[in-house]
Write a structure and sequence with these properties.
The chain contains one helix and 17 strands. The protein is mainly beta.
């Protein structure tokens, strides 16, 4: 095997070697480089979720990350800590939404981490006072057949799920605010709707779900 010598073609390097960037390299070394290049660079988010007044941990808080809306990150019920799965590093921003029963949801937008970085975040949530409510109601239907779809309308920031009835209709009281709603039924394309709920008002959501290909 000829290695570390100049070349213009593989045959100049002999068996077991190839020409890469005018230099003969052993095939096994080239394979190692290919594997190395394919490994994704990642970072991790960790931290705690605390009560903003007492700084006590909130054990039933849930986090969602932009780009991973269908995957929810729960905190440790003992100390309110959390740690994410490896996230793809790079340029850009990521939005973290934290919610817990009886607390106002909190959203924070941060830069993505660098390769192998561990970003530590501490979220302090504010207790809700008297909750003002509005209503959401509507239906889920198959876009082609018009038949009812039995599934769930989900408010990630509130951790609230509204189940449909047998005829595909749904209704529920929801705390006032601006929310992103997720409708993700098995066999259908996921839809996201941005809505605003005001005290005493009713928001109508009649959703036609398109079958996934």
């Amino acid at each position: 095997i000829k290695t570390n010598v100049k070349c213009t073609a593989d045959e100049e390097c002999g068996p077991g070697a190839v020409c890469r960037e005018t230099q003969c390299l052993a095939v096994k070394e080239v394979a190692k480089e290919v594997v190395k290049e394919k490994l994704p660079e990642t970072y991790v988010l960790n931290g705690r979720v605390l009560d903003g007044a007492t700084e006590e941990p909130i054990p039933d808080a849930v986090l969602t990350l932009s780009g991973y809306e269908n995957t929810f990150l729960a905190v440790d019920y003992k100390n309110g800590s959390f740690a994410s799965w490896p996230l793809a590093s790079g340029e850009g921003l990521i939005q973290v939404t934290v919610s817990a029963p009886s607390y106002k949801p909190l959203q924070e937008t941060i830069p993505k981490g660098k390769a192998s970085e561990v970003k530590t975040l501490v979220f302090k949530l504010e207790k809700l006072g008297k909750t003002e409510l509005g209503q959401v109601r509507g239906s889920l239907k198959h876009a082609g057949a018009g038949s009812p779809v039995l599934w769930v309308v989900f408010f990630p920031a509130l951790g609230q799920k509204i189940k449909t009835r047998k005829d595909g209709t749904f209704s529920a009281d929801v705390a006032t605010g601006r929310y992103q709603v997720l409708i993700s039924a098995a066999g259908f394309v996921t839809q996201r709707k941005d809505i605003e709920i005001r005290a005493g008002d009713t928001v109508i959501l009649n959703i036609d779900l398109t079958p996934a290909k």
